[in-house]
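Changelog excerpt

This revision adds worked examples to the README so contributors can see how folded entries look when concatenated. The first example is reproduced verbatim below.
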Amino acid sequence: MDISRTVAFHTLGCKLNYAETSTLSRMLENEGFQKKSFDDIADVYVINTCSVTDNADKECRQLVRRIQRKSPQSLVVITGCYAQLKPKEIASIKGVDLVLGAAEKFNIVSHLKELTKGDSTKISSCDIEEISGFNSSFSISDRTRTFLKVQDGCSYNCSFCTIPMARGKSRSDTIANVVTHARELSEKGVKEVVLTGVNLGDFGLNGAENTRGSRRGETFYELIQELEKVEGIERYRISSIEPNLLTDEIIAFVAGSKKFMPHFHIPLQSGSNHILGLMRRRYKREWYADRVAMIKSLIPHCCIGVDVIVGFPGETEEEFEATYNFLDDIEVSYFHVFTYSERDNTAALDIRPVVSVHTRHERNKILRNLSYRKMRDFTNQHIGQTREVLFESRKKEGMMEGYTDNYIKVITPYREELVNTIAEWAI
């Protein structure tokens, strides 16, 4: 392979995608590729796609058109969830040379060796049911915070979600491998590790054995206990965990941990039990409220983030108000608000009545405003306190930022000596 070749990456979607893109980048750099900015001219462009919303699909198309305008002779590779779900649709986009499905993305080196510009678009994909292996990944753009993938896929069947079709059954790394990666990251000077996956609480499942997955005797609770012992890593965060898998022992462990931060992100999706049932979620609002109450009883200063979907089919004005009031009443700190969008081959397509697009967007605005107020109130509760802040390397207009242990953003004039350090800071 020509070692003078250059490659540029663009990632759409979740933290898991960022971890995988970083791993693909290292693989190609090890083969002699020079990494370039996506805005630069490169020999190869790799777009790692998401397909949670229509916007991700549209953005992928826009990126390909942008490459065509500035560098029409470059090779364009599309991978990620969109590539697994709709490989033929992507292959029809002018300028795309290679489409890599979920099982093939980590074989990118061998595919590029056989790829020539001008050939017909190559699709390398497989039936998602055939995918059983786990590929470790982590991001490391700087030493401050790293996303470490420990789990992949999902064996749930939520009626709105395409992720099981895009990533396959739930499967995960071993505790031994995760601990090894954490030690490697510690040696690189990483201070904070964010554990990522599609369904983290399912850690220990092995999708290779049968359609429901089998457990090999390891659990997420055991994983975090072992990671606590790794020297050098000063902070861990749990990126997201389903409320039905957030056990009392996990909450109690985080409450007593010196390294796991007082910060949970717990998907809710709706505050209406009727809508939760239509979504095929595995809990009711009462259980969610119980999880939040237990966290706050043990960790009063804990930050709790929420995922919520607005405009799901069948969501009446009363059910939306139920979600609003539920989120307003419980002690959560901020929301990620998603506007429902129809996805092919999901059960939600058959649910009626459909909520108008205008109403969906209006509900999104209402909840985002509530989220802003909730985070402001959470931050105000800590004014006057001194908390530990991990400062990041990014410099913007002479300022730098960092996050407290409980995820309050701090902005201060840039000081190089603070980069990648944990400092006591008055809020």
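The second example, added in the same revision:
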Amino acid sequence: MILFITVFNCTGGVYLAAVNEMVGSTQLMREDVMMAGYASLVGMALFFAIMFRLKWAVRPKTTLGCCIPALLVANLISMHTTSVPLLVGVSLVAGFIRMWAIYECNSTIQLWITPKRDMSIWFCYIYLMVNTTIQITGLAALGFSMWVSWQYMHWCIIGILLVLYLVVIVCYRGRRIMPRLPLLGVDWIGLLLWATTALSVLFVAIYGEHYEWWSSEPIRFATALGVVSLGLNLWRATFLRHPYISLQIFRIPIVPISVMIILLMDLLLAPSHIFEHLVMEQVLGFDTRNILTMNWVAIAGVVTGVLFTWQTFARRRWTYQRMLVIAFSLFAFYLAYCYFRIDYNIDKEMLYLPIFLRSAGYVIVAILLLTANTRLPFPFVFLHGLSFQNLFSAALAGPIGTAIVGRVFTVVMRQNMQWLGESIDTMSQEALRLPAEALDGMVRLQAMLVAMKEIYGYLLLVAIATLIGLTLRYSGIRPRKVIEPAYRSIYRAVRQRVLPRIRLYRLR
């Protein structure tokens, strides 16, 4: 099952690690590939709201027998199409199907991982699988792109999926654990509206710099579409009996607090998506092989963070506040290290520590917030809160933080180039005896480094202020009541709400 989960985690649309190679060999822009990649994560997040319903409506063999061919088709389309709407739509559906297949496998082995259904232990395992697989997939995609072509990553996954399909046909039994519960009362229109809202936010965050933000018609249209779809969703949730995401989650403080922490964390870690590759490629001149080694450092940080959280948070029951202070201290150290040490002559080995620390801090916060979600009532409110929280943590918070930091970086860099350009007069240019192109490159590089340091400093101040706020506000809440009910108990609760709908449907 763990092998199945690893393979399913490696598929589901485009590979963001090979974005440069895809842009170079197709007619797509970098923003198009990023949009498709994050659309896959939107589909994954929206799956959680109905995962129990799908578990009891479809048998395991039927689930995997349908998901694997669908993922095969998604890989073939992603590899050959140059239509951006088709690529984004296929990635959205593939992300939903991929999460369905992963959940089917994970639910099979949950009692082996944690016999007591302790969700703090379970989420440690989940993030160990997800984050390490993401890094390994990036290594594989970059490796195939460097040695042959980025398409070979898709062909490799297609071959492995065919083997898994054969295993499912031969080894799985077509039996059902519990009676079938039909998919009545699911708000499919709400699913489409939430997907539209999330994709609109992604479009604004990813394409904003390309289209000059709200001075362009596409960004204004995407903003209006997102506002209208969100308004329709919230309006429908006021009178629907079973909306796709219930408004009840917004009345529980843990949901908005978790979303705020996720947005703050991704804002502090946004330089890892923008500056690290700029420094390694344009300043230090690293090739793809040297950049690949940084993924192993990130994997080591993920494993260390998960093991630390498992020992302290899941087993010793440390408080949420203490774990958040530790995680944001790692973020502050990461920002301070980059602020003081990023330079022209920095060695590759000196980048290991900040990458290690920010990877460990990220998984600590992610496990904490998912575990805190178990304070919501099972099953429906918990699932709705889980889906809403994952919509931000997996798909929206990263592009939003990157867009904010990227915009600030562009403005600061322009100001620095203007100030540095004004300080170089004709005499200093003749004294340097450099051509105009070389002098412009030096000014641009210096302006970029100064802008990076400024933004690292601003974010470091935000991290320090967050740490002060966390230490002043005492909270003794520990992960003690985080036991998930048995599937039979959840099934009875769901059946009590679904069977009346079935009887009403038959009378009609």
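Reviewer comment on example two: The chain has a mean pLDDT of 86. The two ends are 43 Å apart (CA to CA).
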